[in-house]
Amino acid sequence: MLLHRTISVAIGLTLLASACGAPRDPDLEKRAFKAVAQLEAEKAATPAPNPNVTAPPAQEAVLQTYSNDERRRILNGVPGTGNRLWAELRTQVGTIKCALDDVEAPQTVVNFVGLATGQLEWRKGASAPAERRPFYDGLTFHRVVEDFVIQTGNPGHEPGGGPGWTIPRETRGSAAFEKPGALAMIDSHTNTHGSQFFITTKPAPDLKAKYAAFGQCQEIDLVRQISNGAQVPRPDGKPSSVPRDPVKIFSVKITRGD
Fold it and tell me: What is the pLDDT of residues 79-90, one digit of tens each?
């Protein structure tokens, strides 16, 4: 799930949906993706060049919080020593390393770590069987906004794709948005975080009160390279956020270090 879309457009020439897109802000929309509100209509295009682009959740997911015991259990399963948690996103174009902030965003980080390491049981969709394996391995950055953000985390390629639950929104780690590489959850409104996240290519302070940042990523040039990849043209000629060749995530490795 992503941002809260305020309209749903239906036209004779059906377009490809891009509804679980990058974080939306009035000022940023004017500059980066002013046509976001129309992207929901794009799903109906034939053929659909990128089934990963999804719409808002069709039904409300269960809100989940992690107890201290659950947090300890999940984080104790992370190898290595040191005071800092690290996530290495190994992609087909290189590795993006991110420092996770489990002080400012404890629920978000433990949820991410539990999914990435396969410690949590999740489902690709409401009717799909439960799985317990590394969640992000094999997914793609299914939505990109040039020189702004890259987004991933939808396993089932269906509206509101996520793990089968949501977690509370934590916005205390807002300092991450003051520089490039903020690692943050997308949502449609309060308490709708699940598995989808984005990484910014530049400072985005306008987002700090609205989206939960839970880490800071390095390799900004690589993040920018992904965001600036070729995109599937929209029939109406407006900016697209659907990558022509979505970059694949081979694995997400979680470790401890300094």
Answer: 999 889 999 999
CB neighbour list of residue 51: distance below 8 Å, 6 or more residues apart: 157
Judge whether 214 and 239 are in contact, CB under 8 Å.
no
Class of the domain covering 58-257: mainly beta
pLDDT digits (tens, 9 = 90+) for 181-192: 999 998 867 677
Beta-carbon contacts of residue 216 (< 8 Å; ≥ 6 apart): 98, 99, 101, 176, 179, 181, 182, 183
Q: What angle do CA 160, 164, 168 make, to 5 degrees?
A: 85
Give, for 7, the enclosing helix (H) or strand (E).
none
pTM given for the model: 0.76
Token code pair at residue 132: 């317990």
